[in-house]
Amino acid sequence: METNEISRAELQEMMKDAFVSILTERKDILEDAMSEAILDIMFGRAIEEGDTGEYSPEKEVITKLLD
């Protein structure tokens, strides 16, 4: 079996072309990734704002989740 060697520059160009092609043809992938990233940031900030350093009893948490 013959193996073909490619240079680092050729590999980078191939990867760049593949990403550009995917993101051009499937814009929804990038949009979904950006939406998820923004939601993660917002969720993290909400957790930080609500963190008082105090713990709640497990029963209280379960009760609130089930209501």
Structure description:
The protein is mostly helical. The chain is built from three helices and no strands.
Tag the structure with descriptive keywords.
67 residues, mainly alpha, 76% helix, 0% strand
Query: What percent of the residues sit in helical stretches (DSSP H or I)?
Result: over 70%
Q: Quick one: how many beta strands?
A: 0
Query: Tell me, what's the shape?
Result: elongated
Oligomer: single chain
Q: β content, as a range?
A: under 5%
Distance linking N and C termini: 64 Å
Continuous helix count: 3
Largest sheet: none
Any low-confidence stretches, pLDDT <50, length ≥5?
A: none
Residue-averaged pLDDT? 91
How many separate domains make up the residues? 1
SSE string, helices as H and strands as E: HHH
Radius of gyration: 23 Å
The class by helix and strand makeup works out as mainly alpha
In brief, what are we looking at here?
This protein has 67 residues and is an all-alpha fold.
